[in-house]
Amino acid sequence: MVEEVQKHSVHTLVFRSLKRTHDMFISDQANIPTPDEKSAEIRRRCKVKDEYGLVEHLPNPKQQKPRGSDEQAIGPYGEHNAWENGDPTVLGTHPFPSAPGVTLADGTMEQADPSMNGMQQIGGEYRTQQRLEAAGVQDIQQHAGAVERYAPPPPAQSKALVQVDKMKNQSLVPKKAPTMPKPSWHPPWKLYRVVSGHLGWVRCIAVEPGNQWFATGSADRVIKIWDLASGTLKLSLTGHISTVRGLAVSPRHPYLFSCGEDKQVKCWDLEYNKTIRHYHGHLSAIYGMDLHPTIDVLTTCSRDATARVWDMRTKACIFTLTGHTNTVAEVRCQAAEPQIVTGSHDCTIRLWDLAAGKSKVTLTNHKKSVRALTLHPTQYTFGSGSPDNLKQWKFPDGNFIQNMSGHNAIINSMAVNADNVLVSAGDNGSMHFWDWKSGYNFQRLQTTVQPGSIDSESGIFTVCFDHSGSRLLTAEADKTIKIYKEDDTATEESHPINWKPEILRKKRY
After folding, report:
1. pTM for the whole thing?
2. How far apart, in Å, are the Cα atoms of 273 and each of 4, 135, 223, 224, 236?
3. What are phi and psi of 312, to 5 degrees?
4. Contact between 462 and 204 (Cβ < 8 Å)
5. Each residue's pLDDT tens digit in the chain (509 positions)?
6. Nearest 5 degrees, angle CA 294-CA 300-CA 305?
7. Among 198, 211, 261, 289, which residue carries the largest CB count within 10 Å?
8. Would you say 323 and 284 are in contact if contact means Cβ atoms under 8 Å apart?
9. How far apart (Å, rounded) are the C-alpha atoms in residues 66 and 80?
10. Do the Cβ atoms of 230 and 221 come closer than 8 Å?
11. CA 22, 28, 34, 35 torsion: positive or negative?
């Protein structure tokens, strides 16, 4: 016969389980152990040794002999160095510790315990400062406004006192919060001419050194040359089989260089208006180019993650600059070191040594792709543009100068003139004008699309100043070239800058 199991509620079962657990552990956990005095003493000593070890055995000023006593032991700090516990210290004939330019005498005895060096140093600095304060207070009280009476200390001691005094004064002087420098006033820029004629997006602009004409390249595969003063079309050059993405005019030869998404680099002779050289080597679309200002070399950058340096005359590829891990979107050349700067979609900027064909510096501060670079025409600095920030850098090592925040768009191009006006152009048709020195954004413009275009065709692909810096040319997605100039009627009174000094935030690299 099977016994019937008595049924209980869940509450009763839980309570019984808790009681069994309580009875099982109460014998060990409920009884508080008796304190062990020896363990407590060891714990206390360990804590004192760990937290106060360096200052545990400092001398007691009350137990020292009065200063000037002939019997006192003169230690390395010019003070009585007999420590309370009687540990041996450094003793010798030299009145001050070893330091740059100061050495101990030959007869100096070193202490037995090297661990006392730190404590002696702390104690010596502390007593030196106290002696300085005591002497200064006494002299001020007794001889206010008079020449100090006490004899100057020895040369080494005097140098140390002066250093302590400087440190003390620097700590007492309140520091002024850094503020942004007042920006220079610049007249506002306004649109004064729209040049149309291309049948596709206008992707690149180059102004010739004589400042008489400029060339544009477009998605319609045609290069057009325009008169800068009147905006009239002078010439059309055909030969590319895909979008023209880069143009450069040589200042020493009658040559125009072009590159495009067809992987071709062409050299045009402007005396005969035809192609005379091709430069082959890139494995994908070429997105930008630049000419070296003093050497007959040409640089191009491509979607194949490389930049190439070409000999202008022999068409040979001198260097293939490898290191970027994504599309190289922009390349710039200058005469000084480093001679080549590249910006890439891998979010880095590289400075290249042209002689060695290797990267000197890699700047990783940007968090998004770098599509825009510009070199300042007179300063040894350059700027870079990315959707996260505009940044300024100093050559030759790429030292960070400042951020310019506020242009929240994909930055396609940047340009700066000799008057320190920086322009950044966005993919949404916005243009921001900045004061280069202070980073102040003094004007914002939104381009107006050509009648018949849709709003999505308001992007700006390239901005470029002419060689006088007084005219700004933009290449846009509505198939036009727009030319801007400064407002001649504007004055500092009629168009004041809306600027207030503000405390600088911590620089974000």
Report:
1. 0.65
2. 112, 88, 11, 12, 9
3. -60, -35
4. yes
5. 566 667 788 888 888 888 888 777 776 655 666 778 888 888 888 888 888 777 767 766 655 555 544 444 444 444 444 444 444 444 444 444 444 444 444 444 444 444 455 555 555 555 655 555 555 544 444 444 444 444 444 454 555 555 655 555 555 555 555 566 788 999 999 999 999 999 999 999 999 999 999 999 999 999 999 999 999 999 999 999 999 999 999 999 999 999 999 999 999 999 999 999 999 999 999 999 999 999 999 999 999 999 999 999 999 999 999 999 999 999 999 999 999 999 999 999 999 999 999 999 999 999 999 999 999 999 999 999 999 999 999 999 999 999 999 999 999 999 999 999 999 999 999 999 999 999 999 999 999 998 888 878 899 999 999 999 999 999 999 999 999 999 999 888 888 888 777 655 555 54
6. 140
7. 289
8. no
9. 10
10. no
11. negative
Strands 265-269 and 274-279: antiparallel
For residue 348, give Cα distances in angstroms to 323, 363, 433: 10, 6, 24
Structure tokens given for 145: 């406004």
3-state SS class at 192: strand
Residue 436 token pair: 């280069």
Q: Which tokens belong to 222?
A: 């045609």
Residue spans of beta strands (DSSP E) within 336-379 = 340-344, 349-353, 358-363, 372-375
Are the C-beta atoms of 328 and 316 separated by less than 8 Å? no
